[in-house]
Structure formats: structure tokens, C-alpha cells
Amino acid sequence: MLLTVLSGLIFSIVLVLFGRKFKAKWSILLPILPTLLFLYFAYQIPQISEGKSIIQHIDWVPSLGVNFDFHLDGLSLLFALLITGIGSCIFFYGRAYLKGHPYFDRFFGYLLLFMSAMLGVVLSDNILLLFVFWELTSISSFFLIGFNNDNPDSRKSALTALGITGFGGFFMLLALVLIGNIADTYTISELFTHRETILNHELYPLIIGLLFVGAFTKSAQFPFHFWLPGAMKAPTPVSAYLHSATMVKAGIYLLARFTPILGDHTYWNTTLLVVGGITMLYAAIHSLFRIDMKAILAYSTISALGVLTFLLGLGTREAMIAVSVFILAHALYKATLFMVTGIVDHETHTRDITVLSGLRKVLGPVALAGILAALSSAGLPFLTFGFIGKDLIYEATLHYTIPEWIWILTGLAVATNIGLVAAGFMAGIKPFVGTLPQEFEKVHLPYKSMWIPPLLLAILGVIFGILPALAGDFITNTASNAIWGNDTASHLKVWHGFNTVFILSLVTLIVGSLIYFINKPSLSKLQAVERLNNISPQRIITGYANDIVRFGQWYTNLFHNGYLRSYHLKIILFAEALIAYRLWLSGPINVDFWTLTYPDWYEIAIIFILIGAIYLVVTTPSRLTAVVGMSVIGYCICLIFVIYSAPDLAMTQFTIDTLSTVLFVLVLYKLPPFINLTSHTVLIRDAVVALGFGVILSLVAFKVWSEPISTEISDFYGENAYLLAKGKNVVNVILVDFRGIDTMFETVVLSIAAIGVYSLIRLRLKSSERE
Amino acid sequence: MKSPILQSATKYLLPILLLFSFFLLLRGHYYPGGGFVGGLVASIAFVLHSFANGPDETMKILKRKPLSLIPTGLSISALSITLPLLFGYPPMTGLWFEEPIPFIGMIGSSLFFDLGVYLVVVGVVLTILFTISLNNLEEKN
Q: How does the UniProt record describe the way this protein sits in the membrane (chain A) (predicted)?
């Protein structure tokens, strides 16, 4: 299984190397990988449907609990089949869609990266590994949304999507770490046994709160839903693959995966019900006002994701069956609708449903796919898989455990589905019926590889609709068992008898169709709705995001303003504050001055020279004099080292001082004559800071002297320098042996400094390279 | 700043100072000295020469850019760290020859580490100083 996840990554690297060839001759090889992976997962169906699961374990970072643990059970298999199956369709479709595009190879590289990441998410049995792949899907989605990188809108949408999903991922990481710490394991299959521990832990509300932020941002739940319509700036194959069928369902996958571990709790169920309920109705209503086919589909996708969250919130056996069936049904018809939209856009260069009509005459098979998918999304009885899904949703709401809520929940579900019926018709049927305008008469069918995949998916929806047991027994039953945690004992049937559920389905279909005929979306209506944008979550959250950016700019300008003097001031002030605080905490300093020895005359002489040099440095108007003064100070310190028997330090100080004086002189040569522009207040401020630093360091020296010091470390080095490292100069032995790695990195730092100076001065842009 | 006294002095000072810097490097393990100080002294020797004769002349003695000393030094240090791995010890284990070598004394892997430091220091100091001073010269012309 590791190979199934990594193969996409490996292949995307190959794509980098041989991109040119894949653009033209070898492009037929691209869809082979997803197809092979699909066959591999399809081959596992019989085994999994018997209730077995496949586990693979490879150590990666065992000390941190991060391992390549993979687990293929019913839920993973459902998603893996969707990812690879729809993936293969998309690869065939995208190859034709982007034929001749200059970034053709890049596109498929991102797509492969995404496919691997998504497979990683659904197959991981380790929550930290899951997180790694989760973030990879966000990143690949960012590249795909911003694929048309010369379009500023597209770049902005990509950034919004990354910002929102990355924000959620951060919260999710916190939740996962908390879960791992409480349960003391990061393996999902082991977490089941720790359910009670986590459920009864005081942090439980926080954990699920954080987890929900992660899942809701990924699955575009209210109030984080707005990145998804923006993500439709991506090329249509991407919208079909990532933003309807797979990636946005990662949030749903996460919730479903954790339902048996964290679910069946009042907080869990209520939050999901409320958020899912708001999202599904809000988005369904929104979709009715759109005129862009992709925008309609985007909002109806958000609504469908809301339905899934809502169902998970119900938490009953029927709801779990409905979740797995609806995931499959929705993926089949929504991917079809998106691909159909792509073809329409590709051939007519517009997606405006007020303009498009009658295209069935020129795009026959495409129209068939679109209409079948729209009917499936509407839930036409007896023929479509969407009907089975809708049936199960109503069954789940009607059998909810709290009787008072049944009618509210059912009403919500019916209202949402009515909206979805109308939205599906608007996107899947509207462009193909009616009279064909003259301007579209010359439209012709695209390549076969573009219209066969959507037709295939649409027909599959019909097959599953007529023979639901086929999908149920082999795929969705084991998935719902995995979410429910027990055998759900479900058997999908077309006909349940003439009962409430069937009546509700009929009502939904009829009212939805009525709305489709009455509601004529137009630009003016769209603009009326968009006036409400000021109070929409999008405006509020992007407002906050902009505030964060502004704060970042202000903070950076404050601390990283490019003035060396300002850096020095801040560093020294901070050090002063820190040391002063420690000194304050450690209590009074007891120094018995009478026990100190009197200084020798040459020590006093050195101190006087030092003071004189400092006075010279501070007062002189000439830079050169100041530099010379500084080096006098350096040599005096050097003498002090010699007197107090630190020859190594003295030698180093001496040579360093010599060289830095030379360096100063070389640099000073470049500077203009010195003019004193500094005001008196600044001078006084600097003097106070400098004096403060001196006083504090003197206090530290007294403190060190008055405290009994532990000599353990120096004793260790003194004893072992010769025994272990065969050296008698302890300082040198520490540098080259005991702490050799430190020295190694210090030399690296020095090298970087030298390279920095060299490149700043020597490597200038040629005039042709300047902008 | 061409003074004949300094020019003829550096003719003798350069080799002596270089020898001294090497001496510091070798004795570092037992007495004050070591690669860092040795490298600094060697750099001072070259800087003194460039003061007397101009950086162009010094570059002629060096024959190659001082920048190239940096990777050389870093790789010698890195090699001396990883060398013990070949003998099955953890990295940075000190490896020593059994018998002292005439004139040089005991030789071990830490001496090569120090040699790497020495070369890096010379490379870094000369790169920075010569880059700036050559640049100044160019602008003057």
C-alpha cells in the first residue's frame, strides 16, 4: 500500500525530468497510473466486502510515533476507489482538455501529487501521517487553483483557499496531538480501544472543537465555505476532481473516521447537526441565484457537503448508511456535471446559463451525460443512484432518536434537496434544452476522451440506481460499517413500498422542478444577492486576514527596519530587561569588598587607558579616531586577559582586534564625511541604555563572584581532556573535540558571512538583467 | 600607501608569520594556540602584505581566490568528523597514530579538524577584506 501512495509522487518526479516528452508523445502514459491503482483497489473489493481489512506497518520516525501505517478498510476503500476511479476519468479528460497548454506537464505533476496525498489521507492509520498528507492536499490544491498564474483573481483565490485550509489544518494538528497524548497512541486502529478515556477527558470539548475547525475548513462548511466558489478559478478538470469529488470530502472522511472514536456524544452530534444544517440550506438557496454553471455547482457541492456533515451529526445507523451511499452518489453525478460544464465551456467559451441553450443538438452524448447526472442529483425514482441516496437521507431523519426533532430535521433535508434538484437542473439540463442560438450552431463534439469519461460516470450512476445492491454489497456497506463501528446490516433496495419516504422524495422532485421552471436566474438577481456580501462570512474573515497582514507589516517595520543601530538598541534593551529580571529574582548581592585584593599599579594604568579611550570614542567627531579608540579598548582587554592567565583568549582577542580595525578602515573609506545628525534626546537615550548595560553586567560579575560556583563542568573537562582526547590545552580540546560539532557549525556560519559579503559586493546585476 | 620599508619588511615577514601561524595550529592541542588563532595570524600576514604591495600583488601569491579555501576547509573538517564512521566508531571520535611523527608530534583526526578551521578562517577573512578593498580600488580607477 505504501507503493500505491508513493507511486504518484515518484511519477510526478519523473514528470519533472521528462516533462517535454510527456507533453507530446508520451502523454497517453499519464492516465495509466491512476487506472492501475484503480484496478488494484478494485481487486481488493471482494476481500474487504467480507469484512477483512489490510494493514501495513513501516517504521519512519518511531521515536515520535510517526510511522507509515496504512489500513485499508471499507471506508478507506470507498474513498480510494473514488480517488483513483474518478482520477482515471479526470486524467483522460484533462489530457484532452489541456492539449497544447504550455504548462501541460506541470498540471499533471500537481494532479499526481494531489492524488498521492489524497490516497495517503484515506489510507493512513497514523494520525500524524494523516496530517502530513492532509497538508499536502492543501498545497497541491493551492497550485492547481492558481494554475492560471497570470490571472490575479486566480492567484487570490488560491491564496484564500490555502489560507483557510492551512488555518484549519493547524487547529487539526493540535487536536490530533491532544488525542495522541491522551490515548498514548497515534495509531487510529488502536484509538478505538481508548474511546472511553478520550470521551471522559476534560479536554474532550476542546479536542472536537479543534478537529471540527480542521474538517469544516477543508469541507467548506459554514462559515468557512467561501473558499470553494473561489477555487472554481482552477481549470475545470481540477474542479471536478478536487473540489467536488475528492479533496473537499477529506473533511467528511476525517469526521467519519473519528465518529466511532469521538462520536455519539451530545457535543459532537449537536455541532455537526447545526453546522451541517446551516451549510446545506444556505448553500442550496445561494446556488439558485447563480448564472455561472461552475458557481451553481460549487454552491450545490457545498450544500451536499453540508448534507453529509448533517448526516454524521444524526449519528444513527440509518444516517451512516446514508452517508456512504450519498458520498458515492454525489461523487458520480457531481464529477459528471463538472466535466460536462468543462466541455460546454471548452466548446462555447461561456458558462453563462442565461445564454446557453439547445446544445443537445450539437453535443449529443454530452447532453445525455449532463441530463442523466442532473436526474441523479434530483433523485428520479427507480432509475438513478441519487434516488437511493435521497431515500436514505429521509429515512435517517425520519428515524431520528429524539421525536420532537424529526419534523424540523426532515423539513430541513427536504428544503435543501428541493434546492439541489433545481440547481442540478439548472446546470445539467438548462444548457441542453430549448432552441439552439445561431452563434452555437458551429459547436462540435470534442475529442472522445473528453466526453466518454462523464458519460461513463453518468451511466454508472444509472446502473447503481437500477441495481443498488451492486454498489451496496460490495462498496458502501463496509464503508458504513466502518463509520458505525458495527455491522449496519443494510441492504440497498430500489422499492421500499409506498411510504412517507417515497412521498417526500416525490414532493422534493416536483417542487424542485417547479422552482426550476419559475426561477429565472439573471444577472440583476445575482447582483441583488451580492449586495449582502458586506455581512457575509467571507467579508468578515478576509477582513481579519487583512488585519493580520497589516499587523505583520507594522510588526516587521518596527523590528526589522533595516537600521543596524535600531537592531542593536532592541537587542541590548531586551538583554538588559532579561538579566535585570533574573538579578531581581535572585535577591541581594553580598560582596565583602574588604576581602578583595588591591589592584596592582599596572592594572590601574590599564583601567585609566581604557577610560580615556572610551571617552575619546564617544566624543570624537572623526570616525577614524573612533576606530582607533575602539582598538585601544580591545588591546587593553587583551592585556587584562594576559594578566589573568587566559593566553588563548588574549591571542584571539589580539588578532581579531587587529583585523576588525583593518576592516573598519576599509569600509570607512566608502562612507561620506561624518556629520552629526543625532539629536540630544537620542544621544541621552543611547547613553542611558549603554550605562545600564554596563551596570547590569558589573552586577552580574559581582553576583558570580559572591555566589559559590559549581566547578563540575570545568573539572570534567580538566580531568578528561588528556585522558579522552589526548590534549593538554583544555580550551582547544573543547573546541576541536568535546564540542567539535559546535565549532563545525560556527565555521559554517563564518563561511555564510563571507559568501554574503562576496555576493553583495561582487555579484552585481548586469544592466541587461535589471528591470 | 607604498612604503619601501614596509615592502621589504613584508618580504620576510610573510613567510615568518605564516610559519608562526602553522606553529600555532600544530601546538594547539597542548599549548595556547589552535586553528582559529592560527588562521587569524595567517590572514594578518596576508593583509600586511596587501597593505605594502596592494591586494593585486597578494592575490598573485595566493594564486586562487580566497573564497575557494572555504569549501576546502569545510570539507576537511567534515571528513575528519565522518572518518571514524569508517572504523565503526561514532562520528567525531578522536583517532590517533600510535607513534609521534618527528617535528610535528602526535597526529590525530582532531588536528585535521583544526586544519579545516584554519583554512576556513583564512578564507573567510581574506574573502571579506579583499572583496571590499578590491572593490574600493576599482571604484577609484
A: Multi-pass membrane protein
